[in-house]
Structures are given as C-alpha cells and as structure tokens.
Amino acid sequence: MNASEERLKDWIEKADHDLGTAIVINLHIPEYSDTLAFHCQQASEKYIKCLLEKKLNFI
C-alpha cells in the first residue's frame, strides 16, 4: 500500500470512529442530538473526502 492509500485508510478509520460515536450517543444519550449531529457530519465529510480523492485520482 502506498502512502496515499495509507492516508485514505487512516481517514476512513477516523470517519468510522465518528460514526461509531454517533451510534453510541444515539443508543445511550439520544438527548445529545447536537453532538450526535456533529459526529454524523464529521463522518460524512471524511467519507466524501476519501471518495473524491479516490475518484478524482488525487492519490
């Protein structure tokens, strides 16, 4: 795996962590909807960034 692919893998892992955090918040403290939304937004941005980099051949 080259450095660019490794960078994408790292971003996907970070996005997965944001999504996982959102799921835990939703299950255990759903009244924290602002924090839940923040982590969903962060995960979405990271996934989209990876998709664009891969599809536009920035790697």
Write a compact overview of the structure shown:
By secondary structure, this protein is mainly alpha-helical.
Description:
The chain has 59 residues and is mainly alpha-helical. The chain has one domain. It is 83% helix and 0% strand. The radius of gyration is 13 Å and the shape is elongated. The model has no long low-confidence stretch (mean pLDDT 93).
Ends apart, CA distance between termini: 11 Å
Low-confidence runs of at least 5 consecutive residues: none
Radius of gyration: 13 Å
Count of domain modules: 1
In N-to-C order, the SSE pattern is HH
Q: Strand portion, in percent?
A: under 5%
Share of helix, binned? over 70%
Topology of helices and strands:
Elements: H1 3-28, H2 33-55
Helix pairs in contact: 1-2
Protein traits:
single chain; 59 residues; mainly alpha
